[in-house]
Amino acid sequence: MFCSNIFGALCVLALTVAAKAQSDTSTAISTGTPPPRSHVPKWVYIRANIRPQIPERPALLCLQVRCFNSAIPVHISQLQIDVAYACQQSVLLVKEDTLAVPTGLQTWVRWQSTLHWVKDPPAHGPLPPVDLVGGLQELTEKVEDGTIAREIDFEWKLVDLLTSVHDGHFAFLPDAYFVFTFLNLQPIISLSTDGKQLPEIYLYNDLEPVSQGEGCEPSPIIKINGTEAVSWLSERALNGTMTFQDLDALYNGIFHSISAYSISAPLNQTVGYFALPDFSRFWGSSINLEFKNGSKSSIPIVAFTTKDFSNVIDGESFYQNFCNTTVKIMAAANGSSASTSQQISTTTPDSAQIPQYPSAIAISDDGPATF
Question: Which CATH class is domain 186-301?
Answer without folding.
Answer: mainly beta
